[in-house]
C-alpha cells in the first residue's frame, strides 16, 4: 500500500450502491465490508487530501461489519456522528467517543444502519511535529495501544465543526492546503491531550475475540461445506452457550446470524467479481442448496435478486 500523496486535491465526493464498491472508494485503505442489515445499500464518501493528512466523512445506509487497514506510518482517528454505538475490535464505543488505530494494523468495525463517521488519517511524523509545535503533551505509547478515547465534549464538538467546515462542497480545500491541515490538527490534538484512554482489554474479552475470529476464519475456509454451530463448537472446543455469548458480546449478533450474513456477503462478492459464474454455481459454492430460499434471503438482505447483482469483474 502506498502512502497518501503529499499533494493537495479538491473535495472528492463518491457515491456507491454496493458495499464492496464503497469500501474501495476510500483512498489508500485496505477494506472489506459485509452488509449486516436488510435493504438496498447506499454509501457516500466525502474526502480531501492534505500534505500529511486525509480527512473524510463516510455515510452508510445499512449496518456493516468492516475489516479495515490504513496506510503505514499513520494514525487513524474516527469520530462517529451517530447516536448509536460502534464496535471496534468487538469493544463497544459509546456515542461521543473517538476511535483510534495505528496504520498497517487490521481492525474491525461493526456499525449500525444510517451511520456517519468523520475520519482523519495523519502521518505520525506530522502528528508528533504538530503536537510539539503547538505545546500538546501526548502519551504516544498509550495512544498507539488505544482503541477508544473519551475526550471532553467541548473539544469533540469543536473538532467535528472544523472537519465539517473543511468538507463543505462550497468550501473545499483552501488555496493553502498547509493552512487547512493546521486547522485540522489544532482541532484534533485537544482530543488526544485531554482525552481519557479506555483501560486495556481484559483477558476474558481477548479470549472471546479470538474465538469469534477463529470461527469466522473456519467458516470462510470451508464455505462450500455445511458448517453448523455444533461444528464450530467442536472445532473450537467450546460449548454452544460459550459460542453464543462470544458472538453476542463481540459482534452483537448470534452465531447463526453471523454464519448466514458471511455466506450471503461471500456469494455477493463472488457474483460481482466473476462475471462468467452462474448464480447457481456461486450459490452452491457457498453451500446454498435450496436455490429459492437463497434468492429470497439474498433479496431481503441486499434489496435486489442475485441475478440483478452488478457483475463488475472486480473484487
From TrEMBL:
| UniProt-listed PANTHER family | HTH-TYPE DNA-BINDING TRANSCRIPTIONAL ACTIVATOR EUTR (PTHR46796:SF12), HTH-TYPE TRANSCRIPTIONAL ACTIVATOR RHAS-RELATED (PTHR46796)
Q: Which residues form the HTH araC/xylS-type domain?
A: 213-312
> InterPro entries from the xrefs?
AraC_XylS_family_regulators, Homeodomain-like_sf, HTH_AraC, HTH_AraC-typ_CS
What this protein is called in its record is: Helix-turn-helix domain-containing protein
Task: Read off the SMART domains from this record.
Answer: HTH_ARAC
Q: Keywords assigned by UniProt?
A: DNA-binding, Transcription, Transcription regulation
Query: Which PROSITE patterns does the entry mention?
Result: HTH_ARAC_FAMILY_1, HTH_ARAC_FAMILY_2
* One Pfam family linked to the record: HTH_18
